[in-house]
Amino acid sequence: MTASDQPITYASAGVDVHAGDRAVELMKESVRRATRPEVLGGLGGFAGMFDASVLKGMQRPVLATSTDGVGTKVAIAQAMDVHDTIGQDLVGMVVDDIVVSGAEPLFMTDYIACGKVVPERIAAIVSGIARGCELAGVALVGGETAEHPGLLGPEEYDVAGAATGVVEHGEVLGPHLVEKTDVIIALPSSGLHSNGYSLVRRVFGAAGWDWDRHVDELGRTLGEECLEPTRIYTKPLLELIRAQVGLHALSHVTGGGLAANLARVLPRGLCGVVDRNWTPPAIFQLVQELGRVPQADLEQTLNMGVGFVAIVSAHNAPRAMGVLAEHGIEAWPIGEVIDAADVPEIGEPLVQGAKGVDGGSVQMTGSYLGWSI
Known about the structure:
2 domains, cytoplasm, Phosphoribosyl-aminoimidazole Synthetase, Chain A, domain 2, CATH 3.30.1330.10, phosphoribosylamine-glycine ligase activity, Phosphoribosylformylglycinamidine cyclo-ligase, 15 strands, alpha+beta, PurM-like_C_sf, phosphoribosylformylglycinamidine cyclo-ligase activity
């Protein structure tokens, strides 16, 4: 055994504890804005605390929890050295999964792993997380930043988060409420959101396009378009739930695309027939044309301009869309729920069994407006 010539410290191993402390100081103001009255204690505790006595008024409170990350979208943030938007993506991916069940998200924690703690960069990431929590009405009650030298490069990081919400047992949304003749309503996405970036990066990389390239069809640079933050639907959807408009199910259109995620909230024996009656934002056609991506692959990877789907009783559909419009979401009908035995033979495949859910099926029909594929 040969000892090192020089003493080995944590700092010489690549971990700067003082940089971590400075990052916490820089993020404090952002975190203060992302709170709720039920939060106990402040930043820096070993655990975030939330006063659960607020649940005492509920008859049978059911907790809902979700965890997620933002995938390879972080690679674009790192390449562009823009870090204050990726946090909103994280919040959207986590809290809007909770709303699908009809639950109100209450609090969230985050985790950032990096090769080197750069306080300003960490604070920028957390500022995006805090902003997302503000938009969702969710408290950011804690988090962790871990420095992993040798595992991640100095400029590399990844983010993850988890959230918890609550819903009355008798008000849980889902397949058990969906009925034949229900209307399927689409809520527009803000762009790519946080799914399919391995495909997107591969397409633009193969074409030799840089992230700072200005693209006329987009009206901005490619990187600015791809870093557009995920739309957070929490508050408008909670208002839709409270409006009692015959809402039966919700689906968050993330990995797997619209059809696969819609099928997850349909019961066996029923099929959602979806008309491609909209024009996806320009970024989707750009990916398709530049990479000659087959339509089936495109649709099972990207959201195609629809970030959420609501299933409501037919006679309540106009009112539901009105409620969403009042809260800044211009939704539109894209189909209906029918008996699976009545699905037309039009050569379009049925999508079912997504993510292990033995539920209903979805058939996409028609063509996107203005597209030639």
